[in-house]
UniProtKB/TrEMBL annotation:
Organism of origin: Desmophyllum pertusum
GO process annotations (BP): snRNA 3'-end processing
Official protein name in the record: Integrator complex subunit 7
Domain Integrator complex subunit 7 N-terminal: 88-454
Segments passing through the bilayer: none
Family to which this protein belongs: Belongs to the Integrator subunit 7 family.
A GO cellular component entry from the record: integrator complex
InterPro entries with a match to the protein in the record: ARM-type_fold, INTS7, INTS7_N
Amino acid sequence: MAASLSFGTLMNFGDKTSNNSDSWQDANTALAELDKGLRSSKTGEQCEAIVRFPSLFEKYPFPILINSALLKLADVFRVGSNFLRLCILKRIYSVIHSNDPVARAITVRVLGSIACIVSERKNVHHSIRSSLESHDQVELEAAIFATDRLCAQSREFASGLYNKIVQLIEGLSTPVEMKLKLIPIFRHMHYDLQLTAKVHELCSSLLASHPACHFVVVTLHTLSCLAVSSVIDIPKQAELLLKYLAQDPRKVVKNHTLTDLRMLAKGTPHMWRLQHIEALCEFILSSCYDNLKFAALRTMVTLSRSVAADLLNCDKAVAALTSELLVNIAVAGIKSDKEDVGLCEQAAAAVESCAVVCCISGQLQPLKVCLLSMNSLVDSYPQAASSLVESVSSLLPTSSGDVALALCRAMVTMATQIPSVLTPLRSEIVSHFAKVVISADDDSKESKDLVVCVF
């Protein structure tokens, strides 16, 4: 009895295995036929193959088969004609009317992923708008994703959906995490000034009514992206970000604010004003967090790369004092046996650049501050002497009067600190020193002694 039962079980298992094998073979044969139709040179046969794919999925619901078939359809959509894309889109779009919210969600995500193709189709607009009203979280998240993609492509869709998004954000029934996903959609609403102004007003009210960290970070970033796209609101947005940078005590908010400020500096440095740069400098000086100082300095560096942002603002005295401060810090490190070669090189480059600017503009007092800083740096860090002397000597041919005299004095001082530093340049600078002496006042004995110091 047991033997016959075991034999019967084996026979049933063999039949099932045989049936599965036959099903796989039939499925592969059907897929091969459809693939042949897709590769056909006749548009009619290609469309027929596309239409037959749903029946293939229903008859052979094997994951591997479905995955392979979808990849083939994706290739046709990628390299095929617009007519074939439309045929595939129609088969996809029909799922939007399904009673299964997950199926609708997947369809909406597909529509969002091909937003550049379907951005102006009214039925797609309507379907995504309807999905935004869904009570199913999966479908709602998919609708938010698709809305974000389509708003970036369609002016009509973005303008028409503004009131709906506002309603969802202000609605008490909308979860907080959904509101945080809806707010970034506003960054695409830059198509006209009126819409941009409405978005700015709404986000400003959200900042006041929702002071939570995540809300502030997301809203500020959305406004920053909107400002970069619309351009005209850059000064206003910079002021808002600097306000939160100075007043908000939360480190996370400050960090994201600095990231947004750097984005503004990259996109539109010419829109920055002097008070914005001054506020950023004040933050750098007052902040006690090194990572925040680093982020703020990166913004300053980004601004300095553009000729549109005049960081010196013709106030060479401030630049000279800043260079002197950097030199003093480097010298103090050397005297305390904590020499930082990198810092010394930075100080040398800073004071050298500032001296060039002051010399070109004829600013004597700031130039003297820079030259004294050079002498102080050379006294503690002799390695910088050769480059500094070479830089100063290159300024002599185009200088005259008190400016040239100050340059000569600085070079002579360096020669007393390091006697051999002027030797390679002696033949070049003697004539310049002589011109300075000749043009100087006869009563100035100090100026006439300069040429003697060269030898």
